[in-house]
Amino acid sequence: MKFWKIKTAIFLNYFVFAILLNSVGTVILQVQNNYGISQGEASVLEAFKDLSIAIVSFLLSSYIVRIGYRNAMLIALGFIATVCLIMPSTQSFGATKLLFAAVGSSFALIKMSVYSTIGLVTGSEKEHISLMSFIESFFMVGILTGYFLFSHFSDSSNPASTSWLNVYYVLGGISMIAFLLLLSTPLDESAAHAEKNEPLATEFARMFRLLASPLVLIFILCAFFYVLIEQSIMSWLPTYNNKVLMLPVALSIQMAGILAGATALGRFLAGILMKRLNWLFVLGICLLAAGALVLLAVPLANNAGSSSVTGWANAPIAAFIFPLIGLLLAPVYPAVNSVILSTLPKKSHGLMSGLIIIFSALGGTTGSIITGYIFQQYGGQNAFYFSLIPMGILLTCLVLFYRMQLKHQQQAS
Predict the structure, then answer these.
(1) Which of 108, 245, 292, 412 is least surrounded by Cβ atoms within 10 Å, i.e. has the fewest?
(2) Distance (Å, rounded) from C-alpha 170 to C-alpha 85?
(3) Is the pTM of this model over 0.90?
(4) Is the pLDDT of residue 316 over 70?
(5) Could you tell me the residue ranges of all domains in the chain?
(6) What is the pLDDT of residue 105?
C-alpha cells in the first residue's frame, strides 16, 4: 500500500484516456449525422489521433525523463481537461479533429510516463508484471465504459442532435480529478534521473540502429498490421451497426462494447494458454479462427435491417457475433510485444517501447482510413471483408518473426 496514491492516479489516467482514444468509432458515426461528413472524410479522425501519438513519442521519448514523469502527466491531464470542457461549445468537424490531435499528443506523454513510473513504484519483476497487467486490463474497462457513456448522451430519436457532446463535460471533470490527485501525490524520480542522459543525436542514432535489425523490422510489421486490423474494426463498428445492421445510434454504440469486452477476455485467456503452449501456435490458431469468423459473421448482415430494432433483445445475431473477433485477435499484440522485449537487451527496452508506440499509431491510422474509403465506395460489408488481407499478411509475418527470434536466441547462447 506504499504507493497506493500514485497507483490510483495512474489507473485513473489510463481510464480517462481509454475512453477518449477509443471514442473515435463513436465520434466517426456522430460527425456523419451532425456535420454531413462522408465516411472517407470522417476516417481522418484516426489520423489526427494516431499521428499525434507517433510524432510526440518520437520527439519527446528522449526528453521525458528531463521533463519528469509526474510533470509530463500533469501537463497532459491539465491540457486535455481544458480541451474537453471547451469541446461542447465548438460543434464543428474542425474542432473534432483538433480534439483528437490533443488526445493523441497527451496520451503519448501519459503512456511514456506511466510505463516509466511503474518501474519506480514496484520492487520486483513479478510486481512489475502484475501492475502492468492490471493497468492494461483497466484500459479495456475504460474502453467498455466509454461505449455506454457516449450512448447515454446520444439521442437515438434525433440522430442529428449534438447532445452527445455533453459527454466531454464528464470526461473533463474526470481529467481534473486525476490532475488534482496526481498534483497532491509525491513521486520520487531520483532513480530515473540518476542515469546519465545521452545527447538527443546519440539517442536518435541508437533508435535508427535498432530499426536496422531484421528482427526488429519484422516485429514492426507484425505490430503495424495487427493494429491496422484492430483499429479498422474498432473505429468502424458503431457505423457498421448503424448503417448496415440498421441499429439505433445509441444501441450501435453500446453493442460495439462487445468488442472491448471480448478483447479483454481474450487477453486474459491467452495469458493462461501461453504459459503452456507455443506462442506462434496460439496466435496462428487465433488468426485462422478470426478469418473464419469474418466469413461467417459478415454475410449474416444480409438478413439484418428487415425489422425495427428497439434494443438488445431484438438486435440481429450479426451484431453479437462479429464483435467476438476481439476474443481471437486480442492475444496477438501483447504477445509479440512481450517476445521482442524479452529478446532484446534491457538497455534497448526504452527505445523499443517508443518504436512500438510510433508504428502502432501508424498502423491504426492506415487501417481506419482504408476501411473508411472502402466503406464509402463499396459498402460496410466489403469494408470488413478487407480485414482478411492484413490477417493473411500478419500470419506470414508472425511465422518469419518466430524463425528470426529462434535464430537470434541461438546466436546469443
Answers:
(1) 412
(2) 9
(3) no
(4) yes
(5) 1-197, 199-413
(6) 92
Judge whether residue 358 has pLDDT over 70. yes
Find the range with the poorest average confidence among 268-272, 341-345, 377-381: 341-345
Q: Which fold has domain 1-197?
A: Growth Hormone; Chain: A; (1.20.1250)
Cα radius of gyration (the chain): 21
Which architecture does CATH list for 199-413? Up-down Bundle (1.20)
| Count of alpha carbons within 13 angstroms of residue 238, beta-carbon side | 31
**Please, which pLDDT band fits residue 413 given cuts at 50, 70 and 90?**
low
